[in-house]
Design goal:
The chain is of the alpha+beta class. The chain has a domain at 1-7 and 51-107. It has 2 helices and 6 strands, in the order βββαβββα. The strands form 2 sheets. Strands 3-4-5-6 form a 4-stranded antiparallel β-sheet. It has a two-stranded antiparallel ribbon with strand order 1-2. A hairpin with a 7-residue loop joins strand 4 (51-57) and strand 5 (65-71). The longest helix has 10 residues, at 90-99. The protein binds zinc ion. Zinc ion binds at residues 6, 8-9, 11, 58, 61-62, 64.
Length: 107
């Protein structure tokens, strides 16, 4: 079972208390962007076997969105962190590299 600690209320919640929100750190383009940018925003998602950054909502708790870095193959959770970031914070990257030295970093 997947257990994530909500960084907003510090409660370890299992997956029945959470709502998945898909891939984290998706670039949203504003007015004036072209169709290719909009297509990428709507449809193009990573689907790695390994380290992945995801959005989750603590739907049965505080209700807030947060991000999680986890392995999709083993369900190992490296860190959870605020959704108010444009990319994974350095402490999250350090936590991943300490357990996965071969990891190449976020794309
Ligand atoms: Zn929470």
């Amino acid at each position: 079972m997947l257990i994530l600690t909500c960084p907003c209320c510090n409660i370890a919640a299992d997956e029945t208390e959470l709502l998945p929100g898909g891939q984290a750190h998706i670039t949203r383009h504003g007015p004036g962007s072209d169709d290719a940018d909009f297509e990428t925003y709507l449809f193009m998602r990573e689907n790695p076997k390994g380290v992945h950054f995801e959005r989750w909502r603590h739907s049965m708790g505080c209700g807030k969105w947060f991000h999680a870095a986890r392995c999709t193959a083993t369900l190992e959770v490296f860190a959870t962190y605020s959704a108010q970031t444009f990319g994974p914070p350095q402490h999250v990257i350090d936590a991943i590299k300490s357990r996965r030295p071969d990891w190449q970093g976020p794309v």
